Amino acid sequence: MTNQTASQARSHNGTRSNPLRDPRDRRLNRIAGPSALVMFGVTGDLARKKLLPAIYDLANRGLLPPSFSLVGVGRRPWSHDDFAAEVLAHVKASARTAFDEQVWEQLSAGLRFVPANGFDDDEAYSALKSTLTELEASRGTRGNHAFYLSIPPNSFDTVCQKLSSHGLARREDPDADDAEQPSWNRVVIEKPFGHDLESARELNTVVESVFTPDEVFRIDHYLG
């Protein structure tokens, strides 16, 4: 782990940081604030067996706010209800905590799905932007977005550039006069990425051409 990655992974008091948490938030360090998590590759094996059940476990432990929302992006022609049914099946099969109907009802209310014909599908990014706008109005996510790239590293460039061109990676200026509580963006990528040091640096450059270094979280899912 590089010094940069280590500093991002830990807060000032040495505890693990939460990529969904605004550093200005003075509540308990591990509790996420209002936000939407957008998961690319949500129909993949890792998401189905690990990531989706883990999100439920966080909700069940009280570590996600009532307004938390999850947007899946994938190739399936699913509706929001279809996606919720898929998530429920994987939660019941693989979650580490006991199933609680009330927790599930609260979590499922914030589930959305955006079908995409590929990572370069402009219509999908337009639909994603509309979905995030709807969630901000209906769920109070406050424009806070984390993009989880559970996808092959060679697709990082396409996704990051599309997020940028569709205005999804834009952030508010924290120094602006009307920015009392500016929104934030995060991007979460899985390690290891790249086949050697040079390719890893190239991928890093790609991601940081759209997101600032402090917005990038690198996670080794094997340590989860």
UniProtKB/TrEMBL annotation:
**Do the record's keywords include Zinc-finger?**
no
The UniProt keyword set, sorted, is:
Carbohydrate metabolism, Glucose metabolism, NADP, Oxidoreductase
A GO BP term here is: glucose metabolic process
A GO molecular-function term, please?
A: NADP binding
Coiled coil as a keyword?
Answer: no
Gene3D superfamilies associated with the record: NAD(P)-binding Rossmann-like Domain (3.40.50.720)
Q: Which InterPro entries match?
A: G6P_DH, G6P_DH_NAD-bd, NAD(P)-bd_dom_sf
Q: Where is the composition biased (Polar residues)?
A: 1-17
Quote a single Gene Ontology cellular component term: cytosol
Pathway-wise, it operates in: Carbohydrate degradation; pentose phosphate pathway; D-ribulose 5-phosphate from D-glucose 6-phosphate (oxidative stage): step 1/3
Q: Where is the Glucose-6-phosphate dehydrogenase NAD-binding domain?
A: 38-224
One Pfam family here: G6PD_N
The protein in question is named Glucose-6-phosphate dehydrogenase
Per the UniProt entry, what species is this protein from, by scientific name? Candidatus Nesterenkonia stercoripullorum
